[in-house]
């Protein structure tokens, strides 16, 4: 029997599909695992209030990023904060092929599947996406995530780790890892930088022995 | 769907051949199919004899080393850096000929070979590039000259200078007179202003013209007297043109009418006011392209101002020669002649201003890069004066005379465009205006006491060249130095050590060493890092072999090659590399309107960078020769 408060929601088929895939997902060796580097550009930094303007994501497998395996979405939003425009450069009525939020959700879920999501300060990106999902009465993302900021810290000697700033920006990370700057402050460009950073960090972490997937999460 | 990453790859690739020859749409299509790959240092991209991958590669960041086995073990064939293409199947081979290993952390773009082949099948520029680069890539880096030719063949930006369409320059100050003066008055007016043509006008409207030739014809006819009025003999109607006429049009009009002067009026008709006059001479000057013409102009100059004008035209000529890619040795020869004439004429003008003739014979010397005849651009003056020993009671008086002369010379050269030497290495400095015996003593000191300052000075003073005056004085000095050097070898070791101070940026295959601070941060100092080390090396080696007849770096290397069989190839390569670098610097200097010393690497094309880099190999090898020959590590 069901308790009244245990009301089960009716989810649309695409969500059911997304969710159920996790049960069947199997773990592969690190070199064959598909990772998704992801970044969002938002109207601001307030998770409750601000909205996603664009999502950029690109797939990584082993040492290789395949350019065609990417996602680049511009989302229609009513909420708009002119203050953040100078950063991401997306104007409300910009000349982009914008899609509705629900379509963006469907395409994003389809693209990421059950793969591990990598991002720089990924917590924020996941939170805004979850908020968007919530507004459309969907559940939260179920993918595992990895933060390049956190991973990078592991490369540092424990002594230096203490001195590292709390927020290590993507610019600082690219400089430290000598990553050519792509389009900074576009979702796709930042996703690309994150992807290269991730490959570089993995290489360095695996310096002496072979790195295993689960070690990334420790 | 928009794909920003593909666009970024496109932006990168389009800078490099052969992608720059592809249509935007095609290249973008390829970019969308690209993969981005990261390689750790020493990671293998592909192995020799392995079958070709479906993709070929372009280095985005970092460097890939290509190697193959040879009888001496593994031989590095090439180092590919940013924008270099590798692993492309050009011939019918079905496996890699080389092994590709990351020389450092590297990011590469992998592009599908098949799609690329399909899209570029019809593109001749692309296939030409691939064939030539494939042919040149497998050559040794020493075959610089050949690869240079290959590269220049597909340089799409070479433009031919278009002559004749430039606007003709005319004289705005027009000497006019009324038609009611006598021809004698007209003639004296022409004499006074030193003009060959008098424009006869009324209220600034041209009504006739009177040229030297017309006057001559008038007198020859015997029908007129000196009091004949101009209006009876002047030539009408006046052929006019508008101010925007170009050089070719002017030539045509002058030719069809058989005249030597064109009056420029406001709208080009004889009904409007006069704004200028254009003579045949102006046209010749505006072409100003024959060195012979310039030589004449320099030799005829009666004022420094004229020399200055002639010399700035010489610079224009130089630019054209460089644009036409004439061999630098030829350019240097022509400019050597012109420079000699310039100094000669400047000296004539200076001597004319002196109250008396020189008390003893003297010679004017050029020093440093000018002494080596390697200076094409305007730079600082480096010069010295040497005068004959005299038994006069008052040697100070003799010195004062030459100091005064040198002062005039330095001032004139400054006016022509050569800056004063900031280190005051000029003949007007009492230290460098000396008699022969004083100079001999000075060189003896430099040779016997090789302090760091002396070594630095010797780099400038050992490269002296006779420019004007009594050549026997210079020969005397050279003989003295030659004899001194034969007994004092230690100075050469110090000079060798000094020559090794600036190491070439050779260890940085991928990147040039750029200046890390100061005004020229992130610029490549071609003089300091490449040109100066080569001329330093040439000087030491030439002095060591007693080669004193030439000071020119390239010629020094050629002379060395002739007497040093084991190093013949190396010295020949040095000679070539030096000329290539010098040409490069001169071209850059012309483009940047400065000394060309600091090069913005980002402004260079891929081909230029490649060419530059290849010049460093002989430099590194010749420095090794210095190190071994003079045992520099022991001092």
Automatic annotation (TrEMBL), chain A:
Q: Which Gene3D superfamilies match?
A: Ribonuclease H-like superfamily/Ribonuclease H (3.30.420.10)
Q: Which GO terms describe its molecular function?
A: 3'-5' exonuclease activity; nucleic acid binding
| Top-level taxon of the source organism | Bacteria
Taken from the UniProt entry, a GO cellular component term is:
cytosol
Q: Which GO terms describe its biological process?
A: DNA replication proofreading
Which Pfam families does the UniProt entry name for this protein?
A: RNase_T
Ranges where the Exonuclease domain occurs = 34-207
Protein name from the UniProt record: DNA polymerase-3 subunit epsilon
Query: Which taxonomic lineage is given here?
Result: Bacteria, Pseudomonadati, Bacteroidota, Flavobacteriia, Flavobacteriales
Automatic annotation (TrEMBL), chain B:
Per its UniProt record, what SMART domains does this chain match? Answer: CBS, cNMP
Signal peptide span: none
Q: From what superkingdom does this record's organism come?
A: Bacteria
**Alphabetically ordered keywords of this record:** CBS domain, Repeat
Residues forming the CBS domain are 170-227, 234-294
Q: Which CDD domains match?
A: NT_GlnE_GlnD_like (cd05401)
Q: Where is the Cyclic nucleotide-binding domain?
A: 54-137
User: InterPro entries, from UniProt?
Assistant: CBS_dom, CBS_dom_sf, CBS_domain-containing, cNMP-bd_dom, cNMP-bd_dom_sf, DUF294_put_nucleoTrafse_sb-bd, GlnD_Uridyltrans_N, NT_sf
What molecular functions are annotated in GO for this chain?
[protein-PII] uridylyltransferase activity
- Report if keyword Transmembrane is assigned: no
Q: Does the keyword Protein biosynthesis apply?
A: no
The name on file for this protein is CBS domain-containing protein
């Amino acid at each position: 029997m069901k308790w009244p408060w245990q009301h089960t929601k009716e989810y649309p088929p695409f969500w059911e599909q997304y969710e159920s895939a996790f049960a069947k997902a199997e773990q592969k060796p690190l070199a064959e695992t598909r990772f998704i580097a992801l970044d969002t550009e938002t109207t601001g930094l307030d998770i409750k209030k601000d909205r996603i303007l664009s999502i950029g994501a690109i797939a990584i497998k082993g040492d290789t990023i395949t350019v065609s395996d990417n996602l680049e979405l511009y989302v229609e939003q009513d909420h708009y904060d002119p203050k953040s425009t100078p950063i991401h450069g997306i104007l409300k009525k910009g000349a982009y092929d914008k899609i509705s939020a629900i379509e963006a959700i469907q395409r994003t879920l389809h693209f990421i599947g059950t793969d591990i999501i990598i991002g720089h300060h990924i917590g924020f990106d996941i939170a805004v996406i979850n908020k968007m999902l919530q507004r459309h009465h969907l559940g939260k993302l179920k993918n595992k995530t990895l933060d390049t900021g956190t991973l990078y810290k592991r490369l540092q000697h424990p002594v230096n780790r203490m001195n590292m700033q709390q927020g290590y920006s993507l610019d600082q990370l690219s400089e430290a890892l000598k990553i050519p700057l792509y389009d900074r402050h576009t979702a796709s460009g930042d996703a690309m930088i994150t992807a290269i950073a991730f490959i570089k960090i993995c290489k360095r972490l695996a310096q002496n022995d072979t790195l295993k997937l689960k070690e990334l999460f420790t | 769907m928009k794909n920003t990453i593909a666009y970024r790859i496109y932006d990168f690739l389009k800078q490099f051949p052969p992608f720059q020859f592809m249509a935007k749409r095609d290249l973008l299509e390829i970019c969308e199919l690209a993969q981005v790959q990261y390689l750790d240092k020493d990671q293998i991209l592909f192995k020799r004899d392995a079958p070709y991958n479906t993709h070929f590669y372009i280095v985005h960041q970092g460097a890939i080393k290509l190697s193959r086995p040879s009888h001496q073990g593994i031989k590095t064939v090439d180092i590919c850096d940013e924008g270099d293409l590798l692993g492309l199947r050009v011939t019918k081979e079905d496996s890699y000929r080389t092994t590709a290993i990351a020389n450092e952390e590297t990011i590469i773009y992998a592009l599908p070979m098949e799609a690329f082949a399909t899209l570029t099948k019809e593109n001749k520029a692309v296939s030409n590039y691939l064939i030539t680069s494939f042919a040149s890539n497998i050559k040794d880096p020493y075959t610089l000259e050949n690869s240079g030719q290959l590269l220049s063949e597909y340089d799409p930006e070479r433009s031919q200078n278009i002559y004749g369409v430039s606007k003709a320059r005319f004289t705005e100050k027009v000497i006019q007179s009324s038609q009611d003066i006598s021809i004698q008055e007209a003639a004296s007016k022409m004499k006074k202003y030193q003009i060959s043509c008098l424009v006869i006008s009324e209220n600034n409207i041209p009504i006739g013209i009177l040229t030297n030739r017309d006057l001559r014809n008038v007198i020859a006819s015997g029908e007129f007297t000196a009091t004949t009025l101009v209006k009876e003999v002047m030539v009408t109607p006046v052929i006019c043109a508008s101010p925007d006429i170009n050089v070719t049009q002017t030539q045509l009009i002058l030719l069809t009418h058989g005249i030597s002067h064109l009056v420029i009026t406001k709208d080009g008709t004889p009904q409007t006011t006069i704004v200028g006059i254009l003579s045949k001479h102006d046209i010749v000057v505006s072409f100003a392209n024959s060195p012979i013409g310039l030589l004449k102009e320099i030799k005829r100059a009666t004022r420094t101002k004229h020399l200055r004008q002639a010399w700035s035209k010489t610079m224009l000529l130089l630019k054209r020669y460089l644009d036409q890619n004439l061999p630098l040795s030829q350019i240097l020869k022509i400019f050597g002649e012109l420079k000699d004439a310039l100094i000669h004429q400047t000296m004539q003008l200076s001597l004319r201003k002196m109250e008396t003739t020189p008390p003893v014979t003297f010679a004017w010397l050029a020093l440093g890069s000018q002494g080596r005849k390697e200076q094409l651009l305007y730079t600082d003056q480096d010069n010295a004066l040497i005068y004959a020993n005299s038994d006069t009671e008052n040697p100070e008086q003799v010195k004062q005379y030459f100091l005064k002369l040198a002062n005039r010379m330095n001032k004139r050269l400054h006016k022509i465009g050569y800056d004063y030497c900031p280190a005051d290495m000029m003949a007007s400095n009492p230290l460098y205006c000396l008699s022969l015996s004083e100079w001999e003593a000075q060189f003896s000191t430099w040779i016997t006491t090789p302090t760091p300052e002396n070594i630095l000075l010797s780099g400038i003073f050992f490269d002296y060249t006779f420019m004007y005056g009594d050549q026997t004085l210079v020969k005397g000095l050279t003989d003295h130095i030659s004899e001194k050097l034969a007994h004092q070898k230690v100075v050469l070791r110090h000079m060798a050590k000094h020559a090794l101070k600036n190491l070439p940026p050779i260890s940085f295959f991928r990147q040039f060493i750029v200046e890390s601070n100061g005004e020229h941060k992130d610029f490549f100092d071609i003089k300091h890092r490449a040109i100066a080390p080569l001329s330093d090396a040439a000087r030491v080696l030439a002095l060591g072999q007693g080669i004193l007849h030439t000071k020119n770096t390239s010629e020094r290397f050629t002379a060395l090659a002739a007497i040093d069989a084991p190093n013949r190839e190396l010295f020949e390569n040095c000679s070539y590399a030096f000329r290539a670098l010098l040409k490069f610097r001169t071209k850059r200097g012309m483009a940047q309107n400065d000394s060309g010393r600091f090069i913005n690497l980002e402004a260079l094309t891929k081909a230029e960078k490649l060419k530059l880099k290849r010049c460093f190999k002989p430099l590194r090898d010749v420095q090794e020769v210095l190190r071994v020959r003079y045992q520099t590590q022991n001092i």
